Amino acid sequence: MSTASKDMGRTLGQGAELLSVRIGDQDFALDIMAVREIRGWIASTPLPHAPSFIKGMINLRGVVLAIVDLAERLGLPTRDPDSSSVVVVVEARGRIIGLVVDAVSDIIAVNDDMVQSPPDVGADTAMLIPGVLTLEGRIVSIIAIPAIVDQSWTAIPEAA
To answer: Element (H or E) spanning 107, and its range?
Structure first.
């Protein structure tokens, strides 16, 4: 098992799949096993006193979800979500949240040998991005979905 895979908390194995998403001009990947649904953007209702990366909340078939601006959560330049934005509904730390991204690109089949550790620039980066892939001349950063969710959040519904 590569160091990056071990840091992600599981072995990817042969034929594991990641969902590729775009934020601005960058490619990221999410563990497809954590993805519950992909849907178009709908306006969210503000959530008072939430961290700035929480864009609000939406009602998804009777379940109220917090919507996280993934760009802002990762410290990247942000833009206001619009009709071209996508919400990737994921389960993390026993909670369901929506992650706003610019686009969903592809499903990537990977194995441990393909994953490299990111450059060592600090604990926060390694916690959020435990591994990277190089595909067709581009770098795809793998996002640790559990690291997106702060354990202190209490307003986020638990997964059913």
So the answer is: strand 103-110
Examine residue 137 and state whether it is found in any structural domain, yes or no.
yes
What's the CA gap between 150 and 131, in Å, rounded? 20
Q: Which DSSP helix (H) or strand (E) runs through 110?
A: strand 103-110
**Interval 78-97: pLDDT, tens:** 989 999 999 999 998 888 99
14-43 tens-digit pLDDT: 568 999 999 999 999 999 999 999 999 999
Please check whether residue 16 lies inside any domain of the structure.
Answer: yes
Burial class (CB in 10 A: 0-12, 13-18, 19+), 47: middle
**Number of folded domains in the chain?**
1
Q: What are the φ and ψ backbone dihedral angles of 125, each rounded to 5 degrees?
A: -65, -45
Tokens of 61: 């078939």
The proportion of the chain whose per-residue pLDDT surpasses 90, expressed as a percent, equals 56
What global pTM score does this model have?
A: 0.83
Q: Is residue 128 part of a domain?
A: yes
Structure token digits, residue 133? 């892939």
Q: What is the CATH number of the domain that holds 36?
A: 2.40.50.180
